[in-house]
Amino acid sequence: MRGPLGAVIGRYPSSDGSTHLGGIIKHNRKCRDIAVLIIFIAFWIAMIVNSSFAFNRGNPLRLTYGLDYKGNVCGQKHAAQDLRELELKYWLNPNQVYQSGLKDSQFKLANARSICLLDCPIPSEDSLTWVCDYPEGDIRVSLNDWIDMNYDYFEFLTPEMRNSSLQLQGPCYPVIFPSVNVYWSCQFIARASNVSLKHWQQMGGVNIKEDIIIDKSIHEYINSQSAVLKRYMADIGKSWPVLIVCGGILPLFLSVIWLLMIRHFVGAMPWVTVVLFNVLMVSVTMFFYLKVGWIGNDAISPIIGEHDPYIHVYVRELTHLRVFTVLMSFIMLVAILTSIAIVRRILMATSVLKASITFLNIIMKHD
């Protein structure tokens, strides 16, 4: 026998006619689990403390830009150097990059000497170019002049400094490999410039490793799970106004318009809703197809800025985008087939909405 459908207040008879009193709460309920309450309070205190540290000492730019060998965030002003224009992380010593990519090596790419630059260096076609460390100490060059000189003050070095540079010990390092801007880090392309390498050898420079490991080492660093997670968090941090508008304000505004249209166009609104939903699903899916490169030539590239069109760099985000594209294709297909299958239900819904609106109009007239 079915019991009552609503809330039960007071005593109620059972199926055998007797009255139950044991199930009725007659006393004030209190929190008796003190241990859980203490854990809950401690959790929120820890959250508040953690949030205060994040707001006071955190730096969102670290999610996007890298650190140089001094621990400075690229693209930000610091006490020693003003790096606001220098957003790209560049590894100076190619042999350190090579060493970090060896399987048995304990040397990590994070410990390799890196600085912040305005753009990624490329080898010269007729000479050997250099990228020198930040000008300081005996180097009487300002930071702005260093940028205007394309980071090259090799001609101002003393003989001892030049010899040190030929040993890849700085302050200047040769540009042997081309590089491209991949997510604000200069990704080496393991294709050494023959002209630059010849000039380097003629000057008596140490042997420079020419192996694909140089390319893979930086690629694995950029493509690591932690780096991908940082980029996702940085994107969320940059797009919060869009999320608030598109996820909160705009849906609220459209829902009010939708209710008003149901009030005045009740017969057409179920069909309009279904059609708009399917059009939206198809549009979003086609947008994914465009950005993944399966339709047209507007695919998303991890390489920022102008670059050689024959250079392609793979990153995890492209795989994620392809997975979402396949998922959206499946959801779109299910949505369209479901819309076709529930045509009769839509007709019934239209009749119900018409009756509801008619009844609402009668009530409003009587009021």
Automatic annotation (TrEMBL):
Q: Which Gene Ontology cellular-component terms appear in the entry?
A: membrane
Keywords assigned by UniProt?
Membrane, Transmembrane, Transmembrane helix
Topology class, membrane: Multi-pass membrane protein
* Classification via InterPro entries: Choline_transptr-like
Its subcellular locations are: Membrane
Q: List all membrane-crossing ranges.
A: 34-55, 240-262, 268-290, 321-340
Major location category of this protein:
membrane
Q: Name one GO molecular function term.
A: transmembrane transporter activity
Instruction: Say if the entry is tagged with keyword Transmembrane.
Output: yes
User: Does the keyword Membrane feature in the UniProt annotation?
Assistant: yes
Family stated for the protein in its record: Belongs to the CTL (choline transporter-like) family.
> What PANTHER family does its record include?
CHOLINE TRANSPORTER-LIKE (SLC FAMILY 44) (PTHR12385), CHOLINE TRANSPORTER-LIKE PROTEIN (PTHR12385:SF100)
Put simply, this protein is called Choline transporter-like protein
Q: Which organism is it from?
A: Phaseolus angularis (Azuki bean)
Taxonomic path:
Eukaryota, Viridiplantae, Streptophyta, Embryophyta, Tracheophyta
